[in-house]
Design goal:
The chain has 2 helices and 13 strands; from the N terminus they run ββββββββαβαββββ. With about 210 residues, the chain is mainly beta.
């Protein structure tokens, strides 16, 4: 039986042609092929976009040679209890284990609000990211998914993708591009299912939190 007191909080940005994507990646474009406002009997459209648009999860194949595609990822990663934490971290800095010292991690999914990528429609390179040490620490505390309110778990200029590689070592999932403004620290239920895209190196998600 559903709990009528529970509330859904949308933590996904609106996806349209104005949303920022990684420089050089494919921007979001929606093409209308049939339009009822133009006299058609229905409206029909298609889209062209990077799979890393808006709130999304990376598949291991994005950063690991021979890694599985997004269609193969277990859905258990993306549904269940999570903790949301606000961290005081500088722009361009990585979140370190010291930033979560004293925080109670009692869920297998952790989402970080950094406030360093404040507008999904105005790209900035100097967003915060995760440190591999933090990923190792979270894995040791039973965490299976880490999310962040920035375009990547690694810094903009990183080529080695150290945080992504730490996720790969521990077979952990990520969420990137979340919108956590106004979300209070605490425990929630996360629902952020990816599309079942065969061969996909990522998938957009409609990420929501359900209050407990």
């Amino acid at each position: 039986m559903s709990d009528d007191s529970a509330r859904l909080i949308d933590i996904s940005p609106v996806v349209d042609s104005s949303i920022g994507v990684w420089p050089g990646d494919t921007p979001f474009e929606r093409n209308v092929n049939l339009d009822m406002s133009a006299g058609a009997n229905l409206t029909l459209s298609d889209i062209r976009t990077t799979l890393h648009v808006g709130a999304h999860t990376d598949a291991p194949s994005h950063y690991l040679a021979g890694g599985e595609d997004v269609a193969a990822r277990p859905l258990d990663f993306f549904v269940g209890r999570c903790n949301v934490f606000r961290v005081d971290v500088a722009r361009s800095a990585r979140i370190m284990p010291r930033h979560v010292a004293g925080k109670r991690i009692d869920a297998p999914r952790v989402l970080f609000h950094t406030g360093t990528f404040p507008d999904p429609r105005r790209w900035n390179d100097d967003f915060a990211s995760l440190s591999p040490e933090l990923v190792d620490e979270l894995h040791g505390r039973g965490v299976i998914l880490v999310g962040i309110d920035t375009p990547s778990v690694d810094p903009f200029e990183s080529k080695a993708l150290e945080a992504h590689q730490a996720l790969a070592r521990h077979d952990m999932a990520n969420l990137e591009g979340l919108v956590l403004d106004g979300v209070e620290e605490g425990s929630y239920e996360l629902i952020a299912l990816p599309l079942r895209i065969r061969g996909g190196d990522a998938s957009p998600v409609r990420a929501v939190l359900r209050t407990l």
